[in-house]
Amino acid sequence: MISEHVLEVRAPPTAVFEFLSAPDNLVRAVPGATGVGGDDDHQAFVVRASAGDVSLAFRGGVEVTRRDRDGLVVGLAGRAREVSGKGKATADITARLVLEPHGGTRVELIIEIAMVGRVARHGGPVVERAAARIVGDLASRMRTELAESPSGVFGLMSRLIGRTPR
What we know:
The protein is α+β, with helices and mostly antiparallel strands. The chain has one domain (2-157): 2-Layer Sandwich (Alpha-D-Glucose-1,6-Bisphosphate, Chain A, domain 4). Helices cover 29% and strands 44% of the residues.
């Protein structure tokens, strides 16, 4: 299944690139996930998730597969196995960053998701809703953290006028 999303972030592409290039930022955006160690390129995690009436626990990791600073493209790969059971999930993520005329960044996400096991039996709509929620949480975290970044122009502006940009 392929899931596509477009986000607008009021931060320069270089700041968004750095944020997306840190796999722990993606793990923190997944509801129910806890990072359990990693480095600049890889973050291990444990996540509890629900799909319909099934609750599952996964153990896995996310790693950076591509960092193209000139082309403003970040690639990430997530792999997880069900803690008790035979299920597994994979997600290959490509984020293309585009400078907007107002100075912000448009983030174009393409996520290729594959699932096997109990969670896969619930079908595409459940997986699509879960992907949309994760992308929404990632966007919120990115907007908040980059707006509060002392080096970000939007963060500086928001502190000067006392508002958080949307």
